[in-house]
Design a protein that fits this description.
By secondary structure, the protein is of the alpha/beta class. It has a single domain, classed as 3-Layer(aba) Sandwich (Rossmann fold), CATH 3.40.50.1820. It is about 35% helix and about 25% strand. Strands 1-2-4-3-5-6-7-8 form an 8-stranded mixed beta sheet, sandwiched between helices. Helix 5 links the parallel strand 6 and strand 7. Helix 1 packs across helix 7 and helix 3 crosses helix 4. The longest helix is centred in the middle third of the chain and has 16 residues. The protein starts with a strand and ends in a 15-residue tail after the last helix.
Amino acid sequence: MKHRQLPVSLPADHVWLDGLLAHSPQVKGLVVLLQTTVGQHRESREAYLASMLQRGGYATLILDLLTRYEDQRDPDIRYNVPLLATRVVAASDWIRHQPILKSYAVGLMAGGTASGAAIRAAARAPDRFATLVCRAGRPDLAGAGPLRSLLAPLRLVVGSEDGGLAMLQQAYALVTCIKDWSVVTGAGELFVEPGALERAGNLALDWFATHLPPPAPSDEESVEET
């Protein structure tokens, strides 16, 4: 299944966020991969995971949660999880207005502080996101309230050698919805070990295959210009 790659820019309050949309007819759903790096749509870990998801039959949107200006001038903004979560919800508003995307259920995938933003956004807008996969990161930064109120099924993929396992377990224990704790043996926090990221990607594919509903019927065929 060959995907069309389309750079996009979408509004979030007073800023515009860049992303890379990959879409093909007859995809199973849309997975938004959140990153707090900027512009690395073809070289980042998210890009590698997006390629796996595309081969698995999904449309993907790699979304920068920061602008280039913010990335250069304010390194601490990537820890502002409430702000990042608001931007995730804004992205869902944009998706709902795109004819080729609006019929798809949306899944979220994130690592780092974007994990906290994904959980917080899904808890805030339960009708927007069907399920999510967090590649370790900082789900604790979502806050106890969002973790407890999350309704979307969550798979937390962790490395057995991650130094933050105790913190991840504490956050995971607060989640009361359908959830799964999946361990990649031998992997650290960033999944840089040989084969670790691929195993994490396969765990994500299995989760989305189970928890991302099939698309609703749609007659539209073209994305709106941004």
